[in-house]
Amino acid sequence: MEPKEIDRKMDELWKRAAGSDYAPENSSAPAPWTESGIETIQFLKNNFSKAENDWNRLLQTKDSTIRELSAQVDEVRAHLSELKQHYQEARERLINEELSVALNLEDSRRLLDTQKKNHAREITLLKDVLERTRLELGNLAAQSEALRAERDSWQRKFGEAAVTEGDAKDSSARFEAQLADAKEAVEKTLSELLVERKNRRDAESGLQESGKENSELQARLADMKANWDAERSQWRELWDRERSVWETHRQEFAVWEERLRSERQAWTAKLKEEESKGMEYASGLANVLKESSQWSEKVTQILKLYALKGVQLPAVFVSPQAGVIKTRRTVSRMAALALAGLAVLGGFAWWLYDFRSKAHFNLLSQHSLETPNAAGLAVSKDGLWLADWDTGLVLKDAGNLSNLRVLNGSGAEPFRPAAVSAYDGGAWVLDMAQLRFLKKDLKTGSVLETVKTPGPAPQGVAWDGYNLWSFDAATGMLYKYGLDPKTGVTASFELPLAKSLVSMQWFKNELWILDAKNVLRRYALKNGLFAVVSSQAFKSPALAFWAEDGRFWTLETNRNKNGLEIKKYAVKTY
Predict the structure, then answer these.
(1) Which residues of the chain does CATH 2.120.10.30 include?
(2) Residue 16, pLDDT above cutoff 80
(3) Which of 12, 56, 370, 431 has the most CB atoms in a 10 Å sphere around its CB?
(4) Positive or negative torsion for Cα 72, 73, 77, 83
C-alpha cells in the first residue's frame, strides 16, 4: 500500500474516532514500517474498535429511546383521543348550555322588548306632559316678560307705577298659582304613572301565581287520569277474569253435556242389550217350560199305560231309597262347607285386595317448624319447598330444615302462596292474593310464567312433568292446562268422592289427593275418566303432603305445641 493511501485511511480513522473533521497535519512517514508505526496503527485500531463499540451502544440507546418515545407518543395519542372525546362531550355540553342560554336570552329579549314598549309608552306620555308644561311655562315666561316690560314702562312713566305694580303683582300671583297648579298636575300624573306601574307588577305577579295554579291543576288532572287508567285496567282485568270464569263454566257445561249425552247413549245401548238378553232369557225359559210340559205329558201317558195294563212300576218311580237320601244329605253338607269355604276365601281375598291397594306408612323422623302459617309442601333434588303465607316461598335443606333461600313475589304486589309443586330448578306455586299460578326459577328468583286460576276457589296445584293441574272447590272439577299453560284450560274432569281437598300430587302416573276429611285417595286416568284406585284415612290430620320413591313427607299440626312439624314416613305400595 502506498503512503498516500495509508494517510487517507488514517485521516478517515481519525475522523471516526474524534467525531469531527479535524485531522493532524500530514507528516512524512518513513518509507519502511517501524515498530512505532505499527504500534501507532495498533493503537488507532484499538481506538477505532472502542469508538465503534461506543457508537453501537449509542445507537442501541438511541433505538431504545426511540421505542420509549414511540410508546410515549402512543400514550399521548391515546390521551389525546380521550381529550378529544372529553372535548367533544364538553363541546356538546357547552352547545346544550349555549342553546339553553340562547333560549333564556330569547325569553329575556322578549321581556325586555315588552318592557321597552311600556317604557316608550311612559316616556311618550311624560314627553307630552312635559311639552304641555314647557308650553305653559313658555307662555307664562312670555307673559312675565311682557309684564316686566310693562312694569318698566310704568316705572318710566312715574304716573301709574303703583297701579301697574299692583296689577303686576296680582298677575304674578295669579301666574304663580297657575304654575303651582301645573306642578301639582305634573306630580299627580307622575304618581298615577307610578301607581299604574305598581298595578302592572301586581298583575304580572298575579299572572305568575295563576300559571302556578294552572300547572298544579294540570298535575292533579294527570294524577286523576293515571288513577282512572289504573282503575280501568283493574276493572278490565276483573272483567277478563270473570269472562274466563264464565268461559270455563261454559266449557265445563259443554263437557258435562257431552258426557251426559255419551252416558245416555251408553245407558240406552246397555238397556237395549239388557232387553235383548231378557228376551233371549224369556224365550229360553219358554222353551224349557215347553220341553218340561212335553216331558211331563209323556211321563203321565206312560204311567196311565202301566196303570191300565196292571204293571207294577219300579221303586225308582214310586219311593226314594234310603241311600239316595243319605247321598243327598252328604251332598248338601259338602255344598254348605264349600260355600262357607268360599265365603272365607272371599273375605280373605277382599282383605288381601284392600291391603295391597292401600299405601302403608312407617314414621321415620319428625321436625318442628318455627313458622305457624305454612300451607304447602314439596320436595325435589334442590331441597324442601314450603309455601308460607307470611314469608313467601321458602327453600329448606331436606336434612336439617335450614333455610337456603326465600323467593317472594314480583314488585310491590301482595304474594300469598297456598300450595306448591316442585320440579328440578324451580316450583309452581298457587298465589291466593292474585288468584294465579306462578312458575318461579330457583337461580334468579324471577317469575317465568303467570297463569290465571280457572275458578274463583282454587285448591292445590300439581305438575306431572308436562301439564299443570288444578282443582277448584267452587265447581268441584279438576282442570288440566295445555303444554303452554298460558293458552288456558284444555280439559276438565270429575273426581269421584272428592268435593274439597287440601293437597294434590302426581306420583307414578297416579293422582294422589288429600281431601278436607283427611282421606288419602289415589286415582288412575283411564279412557278420559278418573277411577279410584284406593281410599284410606290418614293417621293424623295433615295440611299438605309430598310422595317420592320410598318416602312420604307431610306437613302436620304439632299436637303438643301450637306450631307445625314436618314428618317423614317410609311408604310402600303394591
Answers:
(1) 360-572
(2) no
(3) 431
(4) positive
How many Cα neighbours within 13 Å face the side chain of 522?
A: 15
Contacts of 420 (CB under 8 A, 6+ apart): 376, 377, 378, 385, 386, 387, 393, 427, 428, 429, 430, 461
Q: What is the 3-state secondary structure (H, E, C) of 82-133?
A: HHHHHHHHHHHHHHHHHHHHHHHHHHHHHHHHHHHHHHHHHHHHHHHHHHHH
Alpha-carbon gap, residue 124 to 335, rounded angstroms: 142
User: CA 296, CA 312: separation in Å to the nearest integer?
Assistant: 20
Across the beta sheet with 426-431, the strand order is 417-423, 426-431, 436-441, 447-452
End-to-end CA distance of the chain: 120
The SS3 assignment for 52 reads: helix
> 73: helix, coil or strand?
helix
For the chain, give the mean pLDDT. 81
Q: Provide the pLDDT for residue 156.
A: 78
Q: How far apart are CA 110 and CA 107, in angstroms?
A: 5
Q: What are phi and psi of 414, to 5 degrees?
A: -65, 145
The β-bridge partners of 534 are 522
- Report yes or no: 512 and 547 within 8 Å, Cβ to Cβ: yes
pLDDT category, 512, cuts 50, 70, 90? very high
8 A C-beta contact, residue 427 and residue 376: no
Residue pair 500/517 in contact (Cβ under 8 Å)? The answer is: no
> In angstroms, rounded to a whole number, what is the distance separating the alpha carbons of residues 66 and 58?
12
User: What single letter denotes the amino acid at residue 423?
Assistant: Y
What are 327's three cell numbers?
A: 247321598
Q: What is the CA radius of gyration of the chain?
A: 61
How many Å apart are CA 471 and CA 481, to the nearest integer?
A: 11
Instruction: Number of helices (H) and strands (E) in the chain: give both, helices first.
Output: 5, 20
Whole-number pLDDT of residue 493: 92
C-alpha cell at 397: 335443606
> 7 or 198: which carries more pLDDT confidence?
198
Beta-carbon contacts of 19 under 8 Å, excluding residues fewer than 6 positions away, are 51
Class of domain 360-572: mainly beta
DSSP H or E stretch at residue 463: strand 458-463
Q: For residues 573 and 357, give the distance between their C-alpha atoms in angstroms, rounded to a whole number.
A: 7
Look up residue 36 and give its three cell numbers.
Answer: 512505532
CA distance 556 to 545: 9
Is pLDDT of 28 > 60? Answer: no
CB atoms within 10 A of CB 397: 12
Spatial contact of 479 and 244, defined as CB atoms under 8 Å apart: no
